Amino acid sequence: MHRYRVQKIGFVLLSLAALLVVVPILLVLGAIVVRGLGAIDWEFLTAMPRDGMKAGGILPAIVGTLILTLGTALAAIPVGVGGAIYLSEYARDSWWTRSIRLAIINLAGIPSVVYGLFGLGLFVLFLQFGTSIFAGSLTLAIMTLPVIISASEEALRAVPTEFRTVSASLGGTKWQGIARIVLPQAMPGIITGVILGLLRAAGETAPILFTVAAFYLPRLPSSIYDETMALPYHLYVISTQVPGMPLDVQYGTALVLLLLVLSLNLAATLLRSYFRRRRQW
Predict the structure, then answer these.
(1) pTM (predicted TM-score)
(2) DSSP letter string over 61-78?
(3) Homologous superfamily of 37-44+57-278 in CATH?
(4) To which H or E segment does residue 56 belong?
């Protein structure tokens, strides 16, 4: 009886801990939806800002966020997954590889503002890309690399060794086994890491503040060397720097950013589920 009593108490405590996490999140989401839904209409989503961002829409900020997220994915995914493949499949266990893994873990904990200052010094000033989509995407890519590398390496290591052994016994090269067997089996975990990295990049303000974000730019960018507006920075500006900004516009912008992030998450989750159904273990 004592064992079951302890189990019941543990279950109650875990349930309370879950409620303490979930309820505040639901309250915040509910407040954003209730207060921001009234500001969202067709003009708000498709028009250019005007009157010092107090009127019009947020189309440049939406497009800029999507472009930066796409640029981050193009720069970070090949390097991150490639690095994970090297660490998992090719690198020997030595002090060098252990140092690399430790550095990756430490990089994941660096504040985003430090990445912003690094991007400002390297891409904007030293390489002379200027405050541009190119510089911002590369900065966000560097920030997301530790998450993508760590998650991808764990996913690759989780694939049973028997898959590699069978591939080698059938005469396949090491790369053929990785590309045709190991990678498809590890794809759900890799996609999870990519999701976490890109969602963090889509919601960051500090890195784009130094490298790409424009305060007020009522037009769409025409090249990767242009500045652009972005939803996180736009929300920061209208909440702190624009006097008299209506609250419904602030909450509406926050709701659009939230819906955009959730949409990206949903699309990636569906893709992950597709690969998970095809997994053979």
Answers:
(1) 0.88
(2) HHHHHHHHHHHHHHHHHH
(3) MetI-like (1.10.3720.10)
(4) strand 55-56
